[in-house]
Amino acid sequence: MNKKILKTKIFFKKEDKNNLFSLLQKNSIFMFENKQNISLNDDDNLVLLEKVINMSKKYVKKHKIFDYIEADMNIIDTTVLNKYLSNANAIVKIDNELNTLYSRFKELDTSIKEVLPYKDILDVDFGKLNLSLYTGYMLFKVSTANYEIIKNFLLSYDSQIIYSDKKEKTVFVFGIKDEMKILAYKIKNYINIIDMSKYTSSITQTYNNLDAELINIKKTINMLNNNINNLYKDVNNYKICYDILSNEFVKEQMSYSYTSNTYYISGWINSNDKTFLDEILTLNFEYASAEYSEATNEETPPTLIQNSKLVKPFENITSSYSVPKHNELDPTPLMSVWYFIIFGLIVGDAGYGLLMFILFGLYLKIKKPKGGTNSLIKVFMYSSISVIIFGLLYGSFFGYNPLNLIGLIFNKNWNYSIIDPVKDPMIMLAISIGVGILHISCGLVLNIVNSFRKKEYHTALSKSFSWLSIFLGVGLAILSAFVLKNNIVLYTGIGFIGIGVLLIIIFAGYKKKIGGKVISAFGGLYGITGYLGDILSYARIFALSLSGIEISFTFNLLAKMVSPSLGGNVLLIIIRFILALVIFLVGHALNIVLSLLGAYVHTSRLQYIEFYGKFYEGEGYLFEPFSYNLKYIDKIIFKGEKQQ
Hints:
By secondary structure, this protein is of the alpha+beta class. It is 60% helix and 10% strand. It contains 20 helices and 13 strands. Strands 2, 3, 9, 10 and 11 form a five-stranded antiparallel β-sheet that branches. Strands 6-7-5-8 form a four-stranded antiparallel β-sheet.
């Protein structure tokens, strides 16, 4: 339901700006006329805190699955903020040091692994060899086969095999530097040279130096990790500081206008909050007042939608399509009923519905999500009731007939289903098409309401009354042909079809000349193809419900096939029982996810295309008053402060 919005100007003294904006932000009743594009990345402190919060995933090992943050805004002062900003800077500095140390640690570890094989078998001072002007050397690995090829080249040099196995040999060769270069060139295609040019001492001394440095780095890393863990003792404090500073930053960026005598801001408020705003200004400021007016024809006020708690979550479904204009009928209350029904028709399993209700209910209770996530979870939880109802009508509880499950307890073969999409597919298809006709008809009724509000009576007659009459006539004709076998009902149906056709012919081109009237009439009658396609779209309800039931039946059958029989090997019984349980749980978990995704997408599509397409214009924008925009905090409180 849309509420009346008033254009509002608030006049104040410049020195009262910060206090006024704080009160408006806290009470969330005023929407600035010109919404500003404010980037939080423009504030260095916010960028720093965001970085530290993201880094916490690396250092804070125990993260709560459901973390609910409540903050008392009155105890977070400048001193506290500065403390955590200082801590944040320290965390970033330590993190940089740790990254450098980890990089050096990897280098040392690689070097140690490189020299370790030669520590006890090659007593050579590579530091002196690397500085020598005349003496050269090579340390290389070579396959056993290739060694047989190059060994004759090594006879003229002092060579030593320091390691050997069936596949590979490690060889150290010592000689005159220039000759070593020639040797290296001759055998380069057969060997893999080990570079020892970076070492400045013997292998043993090099290993000891590397090991000592590695030990020191480990100690430093442990110390810095302890320091950073202490700074991260309560990561939520950084999140609280981020939300407080981000809202302060936004408040400071909000613009205002001024004249030679005063300062003012322009915007919108709910007409019901007019008295409340006057009280705030009177109680808190010596010189401040508000001026109210109706929106002019040139102005487009925001849309304030207020629905009951049950309907409100479905506003997110409507807004995802388009926000209604401020003077347009809000379709959400009626849409929510159809969404509820169609969702249940598609999923249609009492077990799935019960599980949905429990899981989504617990998530709302424990996590208390905000914004669009909260609305979506509530839509799923409410729709789970419809899923349970239609699951009982279909006789499906995790793919089993619930009465049959009860009968097993009493050794009875009880079975029932009021509607069985598998056994009675044509009945289920007819129900789906029938729901589609009723759904589209509701859209046409709302189009009549909108047309009458705009005084476009000819539009209501040609585009809505006409098709409602045709639908009624077709319905009566089908009822007469297949159920009642009554000619009076048949002729009545034909009469309604005729009335609908006449309404299209007469009023489709109401304001046009003769040629335009004829073209409009044919165009209106051609609309039957579009309506036929729209109605057939509802066959997806039948297809999706049938696929969900068949998938659950298949996984139940697979679980039954591998389940153990009584008697036999105990271990085999346990294994087969576990395997059957895994197939059952994984199969139904997958089916629930696919069913929910399919129901959400296709139920939304039927609202957007087939339902909203008949009457809804949208293209409005939401009334979003200036308020606290919280990214991490779930709830803010102001203890000890009188609320306005």
